[in-house]
Amino acid sequence: MSDEKKREKGITFFKKLTAGQERQAKSVRAAIPEKFTQYTMEHLFGDVWQGEEIPLELRSLITCTILVALNREAEQRIHFPGARNLGVTREQLEAMIIHAAHYAGWPVAASAFRVLAEVWPVEEA
Fold first, then answer.
1. Distances (CA, A) of 13 to 37, 60, 90, 115
2. Which residue intervals of the chain are DSSP H helices?
3. What pLDDT score was predicted for residue 125?
4. Residue 109: which residues within 8 A CB-CB, separation 6 or more?
5. Domains of the chain by residue range
6. pTM for this predicted structure
7. Cβ contact 116:80 at 8 Å
């Protein structure tokens, strides 16, 4: 597949992932050099995320798990709502954070729960 096709697929997927959070997504993209954004759309979202070996919901949960373990709050703010858009439930995210706490640490999990409460309040679950 050409880079242009991958970029188109990546942009389409990124819009699905960030639906409902367009302002935040635009802010993130504005802070990143265009060349990096291009690579991200082509390679990450246009190729890696498109693999058929792992369903999107599971791929999203894996991504969120990595972001929790690495304590990447800014990316959690994009990917937690994105997981919701892809069919991951709040209960699954909570269970993942609890599981990750035992391997990545309690402070990391507490931080992730604060981000989750911010971007996906319990009353919306």
1. 14, 12, 21, 23
2. 3-17, 22-30, 34-39, 56-69, 73-85, 90-104, 106-119
3. 65
4. 68, 97, 98, 100, 101
5. 1-51, 55-125
6. 0.92
7. yes
